[in-house]
Amino acid sequence: MKIRVAVLYGGKSGEHEVSLRSAASVIRHLDSKRYEVIPIAVDKAGRWSLTELSEKDRAAESLPVRSNGPEFVLPLSGAARPVDVVFPVIHGTFGEDGTLQGLLELADLPYVGCGVLASAVGMDKEVAKRLIQGAGLPIVPYLALRKDAYARDKVAAQVGEKLGYPCFVKPANAGSSVGVHKVKDPSQLLAALDDSFRYDTKVLVEKAIAAREVELSVLENPDPAGEPLVSVPGEITPSHEFYSYEAKYLDEKGAALLIPAKLTAEQTQRAQDIARRAFRALEGEGMARVDLFVDRVSGDFYFNEVNTIPGFTSISMYPKMWEASGLGYSELLTRLVELALARHKRKAELVREFHV
């Protein structure tokens, strides 16, 4: 019998539309001889519905969200299983931040990707930086501001004193560069903060460095005792001032993606080592994309962020870097499903009761 894979897409975050494109690509590339795909759309109001996909839908670059479809109710633990494994392709809040993973844990369903802990800390860029720094890995200097506690009349001076200008302002819990601004002088800071605070109650202000942007795909080792597997690095060279949402998704020429990145063998090894250590420091499982900065002058590497449900479109870096490393898209998806099932089996063997 085929394994029933529920592909969960859409969601309530600002990355809803990106998810529709990622999920379309995942469904097209899942091995139809091995898997029965069950598409489950989550609309912007949070309603889950089973979605019948026509041949035209399956060939499109973006999946539809039809809220008039049959509502899907997640089965409780121990109930009859309408699906065997869940493949979440929901980026951002309520999909990538541990909330969905917690729900799937309660339902006792296997699922692809990181667990609750890694998803939550990976989504919160500031908490991730704390753990990364604690693991002895380099980060760019930053300030964390909370909406209900920062002093508007003092923040520009504080940023100027501790970080300098230019700097970047970004929501702590958001992806796809939503709400991210490059601030060149104090006069631009408050407007940038106001916009970023629209997306989160905690905002980061980071020192801007003259850096190249390098990314690496990380995959859990099928051997639980083995080191995480890391792809060749890829490099993003945006034509915009930085790799903004517009550069990523709205401008066809917004950025050039170079795989492999133009790094020396020593630099490549250093980048892969940081990605591997970052994945372990954040208790990663399944997969993640680790993003780094490379200082153009010194050549030093800095951890930027981790994405636990990275983009999966046909041109997304995560699958592309694995393809360049010898692991094809369909094979990658199969590996991810197998990792999810194996992890669920290991956890099912744990003792949940204690008797004296």
Molecular structure report:
This protein has 356 residues and is an alpha+beta fold. The protein folds into three domains: 3-112, Rossmann fold (3-Layer(aba) Sandwich); 122-138 and 210-308, D-amino Acid Aminotransferase, Chain A, domain 1 (2-Layer Sandwich); 142-207, ATP-grasp fold, A domain (Dna Ligase, domain 1, 2-Layer Sandwich), CATH 3.30.1490.20. Helices cover 31% and strands 22% of the residues. It is built from eleven helices and 14 strands. The chain has helices spanning 16-29, 55-59, 99-106, 116-123, 125-134, 155-162, 189-196, 245-250, 265-281, 317-324, 329-348; strands spanning 3-10, 35-42, 48-50, 85-89, 142-146, 167-171, 181-183, 202-207, 211-219, 229-230, 234-238, 255-258, 287-295, 301-307. Strands 9, 10, 11, 12, 13 and 14 form a six-stranded antiparallel beta sheet that branches. The chain has a four-stranded mixed beta sheet with strand order 3-2-1-4. The radius of gyration is 20 Å and the shape is globular. The chain starts with a strand and ends in an 8-residue tail after the last helix. The mean pLDDT is 92.
Question: What overall geometry do the principal axes of the alpha carbons give?
Answer: globular
CATH architecture of the largest domain: 2-Layer Sandwich
The secondary-structure element order is EHEEHEHHHEHEEHEEEEHEHEEHH
- Percent in strands: 15-25%
Count the domains.
Answer: 3
Give me the CATH fold name of the largest domain: D-amino Acid Aminotransferase, Chain A, domain 1
Q: Which residues form runs of ≥5 with pLDDT under 50?
A: none
Q: The biggest beta sheet, please?
A: 6 strands, antiparallel
Spatial gap, N to C terminus? 42 Å
Q: Level of helix content?
A: 25-40%
The helix-and-strand class reads alpha+beta
What is the gyration radius calculated from CA atoms? 20 Å
Q: Total number of β-strand segments? A: 14
